[in-house]
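ok posting inputs for the zinc ion job
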Amino acid sequence: MSTRIDSVTFLRPERSTLNIDPRDAKKLLDKYDGDLPENCFLRELEDKINSQTKEKVKCACGTTSYGNAKFCRECGAKVVKKSVAGLEINCLDWHDDDSGYDETAANTFFPIFVNKVVPLLRGQAEGSVTYGEVNDDGEDINNYKTSHFIISDGQLVWCEIQLHPGADAPVFTPNDEYEESDDDEDEDEEDDDR
Ligand SMILES: [Zn+2]
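and the output
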């Protein structure tokens, strides 16, 4: 028996301020690329990382060098690094392909996600990991459990959620398109004809 991760998600994505320096994200991807699970939020940042870390920087002499250059390729002066805006993290995906028999996400959750990725994350977010047991046949996840955590400036703290009665129920606004659709509309037209 082993463990497989079903999902890792934000609890309240609208309140997340989680972000990462694109240079840190690139280092993580370069180092762990082959080890990461099939669905991994770091991979989703890849396009943005490439565009930001390849940005050129201009020296006082007027020569432009690549963003990762330490010295100007023309005059040799030290290149002043621009401070780079953090890349916003929009999801916390860290799970394997649904159809697969893979347990990479669970096997890398502590060694890579918690120990290597989280320390480089800035800002705050609340998240959860849902996981379960897989039998030797590896087919289905059983005995689902969910654990909750807060990530705050590079630290992950496990949390317990306590619910208290007394909150307002949510209000759902009906979708107009749905009201007008299909069968109802046909019936209305028949009624009009009579
Ligand atoms: Zn120069």
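notes: The chain has six helices and eleven strands. Residues 59, 61, 63, 72, 74-75, 77 surround zinc ion (CB under 6 Å).
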